[in-house]
Amino acid sequence: MALKVPFRNLSKLNKLYYRRVRKKIKSLFEKEIYIWGEEVEAFEKEFAKYCGVEFCIGVGSGLKALTLIFMAYKALGIMKEGDEVIVPANTFIASILAISLNNLVPVLVEPELKTYLIDPESIERNITSKTKAILAVHLYGQTCEMDKIWDLAKAYNLKVIEDAAQAHGAFYKDKKAGALGDVAGFSFYPSKNLGALGDAGAVTTSDPELAKTVRSLANYGSPKPYVFKLRGLNARMDDFQAIILKEKLKDLDTYNEKRRKIAKFYLENLKNPLITVPYVRNWKEHVFHLFVIRCKEREGLKHYLEKKGVKTLIHYPIPPHKQLAYKEWNEKSYPITEEIHQTVLSLPLCPTMSLRQAQYVVKVVNSFST
Ligand SMILES: *Cc1c(COP(=O)(O)O)cnc(C)c1O
To answer: Ligand 1 atom closest to Cα of 137?
Structure first.
């Protein structure tokens, strides 16, 4: 019997919140301040506490969060144009854009094939006298090997910046994403583990100077009204989004647990020799933003699943170094990254998914043959 399994179901999840936020949303209409008002302040407090850091700055998107971090380090004299930042070659383009938008140089390094996460050994091979930071991307919801990354950062005097856009609530040992580096950028794009009803993001850190600088840069570079100390952006969070996010934050751990349950079911029951399931490190609490398998016959598998009613997506089909936006890298070769982009397929996974749907996905994937 065929079931329809959507990749995710955001409306099913978000509908649950209408009743819970409608009073607050209604009260917004009575207010004078809609951006960086008291709702944003309240969310910032909650999210800082949740991550285990001193400061959270609510901003307009994940890309803005990451861009502001590099801008702030430049404003503080810790980085300057032409400095290098190490970043995994298989990340989402925004990680890399944040670096190059600041006229810093992204240095792409290979990930590990089995975890899809930046490989500490390839980091070390790529450190030069110009390297100033490592951008650790907790891709698909699993945290990077932070102990090894910190060893390198200390040895070479580098900043550790987290791209935590896919890792809300993920742990590395006893600490959460957002508190694992010097500073972190989050996205609350609707499909993320914690998602708004529009664009939003945050910067988390326990460094007071950095927090102050990010806050000022997100507000035209203005430390107080009509005084401009730096050349900044307008990258502030809306109170409307903060209301939604604060309410959804209460359920984030529950939803992450649901994601892990489905992932566990997949990991235990997917038995097709043509596919490789993701490698999960046992000391890290993965939050399965995505469940990404690999298959040499990816196109065939995707098509087969589609025909059987199972929606899948590819994260991501073209690696950053093969994109027109980075023409200068098009001839470079990153074999592991390229293999990942040629073979990955994300299976349906969201907190509203039923066990029956997961069983159906497993049955269909296991029945695929060439
Ligand atoms: C979503 C995402 C971003 C960008 O966030 P936006 O809010 O869409 O700007 C950055 N990095 C990673 C790894 C992401 O998944």
So the answer is: 13
